[in-house]
Design brief:
Structural class: alpha/beta
Shape: globular
CATH architecture of one domain: 2-Layer Sandwich
Radius of gyration: 29 Å
Number of helices: 31
Largest sheet: 7 strands, mixed
CATH class of one domain: Alpha Beta
Strand content: 5-15%
Helix content: 55-70%
Length: 655
């Protein structure tokens, strides 16, 4: 089975957009394998299609294939980076190299597995300036930037600009906002730099920090100019915040609506119009479409009767939907008429649905949704009409081919194995295969339940950088245990902390283990009597670059607590937060950095919830990256481990 046969396979831009829109809806329905086929087909035909690459990165992120997700993200950043972002990305990269001497030292830069290039002399000088800043010699750092600028002012305008931006940023970092603004304003008086996007982007950030009405108004004017030059969505959230701070609520609301619409598109979250357009081309059951939470429920002014019927059905108005479809005999309309009948409770509705679906199947014998509904209905109710239908050689044969093709793509789908078992059970001599397929389905169901109840596995919100630009990422942390020798239990040895972790983080993990062990024994004495009978290990799955810091404290504590209590943490929530031990039974959460990127990552992965320290709430409310509506939808705050435990395990966890 390749990509969906109901979607046109041309190389036109319209066909590519149709496939990607279809894939976006499939992702929202949880059908990641089918979605990936659609996206891969577009990328095979058009490798430079950025929206397809972006959706492919999302799919890999959702599947936990982090190396591929990061690689796709790096390609996107390299191709999408606007001129208003590149200079700051270079400077942030220099700062992080200065903060990490082992990775940043030297005159060469790796650009491939076996290729090195010599860094330009000016870049080495600016790296030295940032090393002076890190060493708490800011005046020396700014002087070094001015020296680079003076040397390259006439020779290389880009290097000159970078040196001036570096000087301004160092002034900003030490809190000298007046000097930082003056440096950029003087640059704007020079020919060629009046409307430079890097300068203007940096100036907006400074004016926001200064915060006077005059500076905020100036920032608005700059942003309105940037709105025409930079990627549109990058500036919408900032304008919404600026207008809110200025008390101009109507304009703030306008830009906020534009921001959330652009944000949801960037995250590949379909609108009602997207879902309706996809469903009007190929059959998607209404009950499944109703599961999607649509941010935008408006439809275009001009829609077909079928599209209006689907929209009405999704919004719960089945009567209006049936009226729109009336007595249409088009195969797709027959499917939706059958679907609507199957959702009714009236006498004879099920028989009518079976009759309509059977007619639709004769017109389109390869639709897996129709085949699946009919077979599941027969397995549940023993409908004679369905048995007769699938005993017809052409219908039964095509249905078997369709289901087997689906299993080639997603072999671990118990529902499809069960449908195939029902189909073979209707054929003469097919009873043995029916039992075999149903046993396979039962085993897969049990495996899925076991995965859903994985003990000691928790999703952690993290951040990585590409050329200095921050990106959020959701990865797993694992805690496991094994029986210990007598008198040697209850411990986590440093050598049993696995993954690409800094020494600082390994020490932090051990501290959290000890604190969580004491917490568990104090709060759950009846569930932790055997806690000292085991030795423990811990692993961080994100191994592409070293993990460090303290922000994984909360997910680490929940992973150990899950193990101690033998209770799974839901796999649709992520956590981040630093843990501080106030007492053996009181663990407090402290704020962490890069919080908006971590929320961004949770929404990108379609998670239900992300738990953050309460101390990050004010910072998130001022984010120009994540709209407030998104934060309200998925973010929950906790001030201590008790509150986080209730969010993860449920309110009754301490009863």
């Amino acid at each position: 089975m390749t990509s969906d046969p109901h979607i046109a396979t041309t190389d036109s831009p319209a066909a590519h957009e149709q496939r990607l829109r279809h894939a976006t809806v499939l992702v929202e329905l949880g059908e990641l394998s089918r979605a990936e086929l659609e996206v891969a087909d577009v990328l095979e035909r058009c490798p430079e299609h950025l929206d397809a690459l972006s959706l492919f990165a999302k799919l890999k992120h959702m599947r936990g294939e982090l190396s591929l997700a990061v690689a796709c993200g790096a390609q996107l950043q390299a191709k999408r980076a606007a001129s208003g972002e590149m200079a700051r990305m270079h400077l942030e990269s220099m700062l992080h190299l200065a903060q990490d001497p082992e990775r940043g030292a030297g005159e060469f830069l790796a650009v491939g597995q076996y290729q090195l290039v010599r860094k330009p002399t000016a870049y080495l000088a600016l790296e030295d300036a940032f090393r002076s800043y890190v060493a708490r010699r800011p005046n020396e750092a700014r002087a070094a930037c001015r020296q680079v600028g003076k040397r390259y002012r006439e020779k290389d305008h880009e290097v000159y600009k970078l040196a001036v931006l570096a000087e301004s940023w160092i002034s900003e970092l030490i809190g000298d906002l007046e000097a930082a603004c003056e440096t950029l304003e003087l640059l704007g008086q020079e020919r060629g730099f009046e409307t430079d996007l890097d300068r203007l982007s940096a100036l907006v950030s400074l004016y926001e920090r200064v915060g006077t009405r005059e500076k905020l108004e100036a920032a608005v004017n700059i942003c309105r100019h940037l709105e025409k030059s930079l990627e549109h969505r990058a500036i919408l959230g900032r304008l919404a915040l600026l207008f809110r701070r200025l008390g101009r609520s109507d304009e703030a609301e306008l830009y906020q609506r534009q921001h959330i619409a652009a944000y949801r598109r960037r995250m590949h979250r379909p609108s009602l119009a997207d879902a309706v357009a996809v469903a009007a081309e190929r059959f998607l059951p209404i009950e499944r479409l109703r599961e999607i939470r649509f941010g935008d429920s408006e439809l275009p002014a001009e829609v077909s009767p079928r599209e209006r019927a689907i929209a009405c059905a999704i919004q719960g108005d089945g009567g209006a939907a049936r009226e729109q479809l009336a007595d249409s005999e088009a195969v797709l309309d027959l499917k939706y008429r059958a679907n609507l009948k199957s959702l009714e409770d009236g006498l004879g509705a099920l028989d009518q649905a079976v009759e309509l679906y059977a007619r639709a199947l004769r017109g389109d014998p390869d639709d897996p949704e129709v085949i699946g509904w009919l077979l599941e209905t027969h397995a549940r109710d023993g409908q004679a009409a369905i048995a007769e239908l699938f005993r017809e050689p052409p219908i039964g044969s095509r249905a078997a081919q369709t289901l087997e093709s689906m299993l080639q793509v997603t072999p671990n789908q118990p529902r499809v194995w069960r449908q195939l078992g029902t189909l073979f059970g209707l054929q003469p001599g097919g009873e043995d295969q029916r039992r075999q397929f149903e046993a396979r389905a039962a085993a897969l169901d049990q495996a899925a339940r076991d995965r859903a109840r994985a003990i000691g596995r928790v999703l952690s919100a993290a951040m990585y950088r590409f050329i200095g630009k921050a990106q959020g990422l959701i990865h797993e942390v694992w805690a496991t245990r094994e029986m210990a020798s007598p008198g040697r239990g209850g411990m986590l040895r440093k050598e049993d902390i696995l993954g690409n972790l800094t020494e600082e983080m390994k020490d932090n993990v051990r501290n959290i283990f000890l604190a969580t062990r004491e917490y568990a024994q104090a709060k759950f004495p009846h569930l932790t009597r055997d806690i000292l009978d085991y030795t423990y290990s811990y692993k961080v799955t994100k191994e592409d670059e070293p993990s460090g810091g303290t922000s994984a404290g909360l997910p680490t504590a929940l992973a150990f607590l899950s193990l101690f209590l033998q209770r799974p943490v839901p796999q649709d929530i992520a956590l981040t937060g630093a843990i501080v031990t106030d007492a053996h039974d009181v663990l407090v959460l402290r704020p962490v950095g890069d919080i908006e990127y971590k929320v961004d990552a949770a929404y990108h992965r379609n998670l239900r919830m992300i738990v953050l320290p309460l101390g990050n709430q004010a910072q998130l409310e001022q984010s120009s990256l994540v709209p407030r509506e998104i934060s309200a939808e998925i973010v929950r705050h906790a001030s201590n481990l008790d509150e986080a435990v209730k969010l993860a395990f449920g309110e009754g966890v301490f009863l």
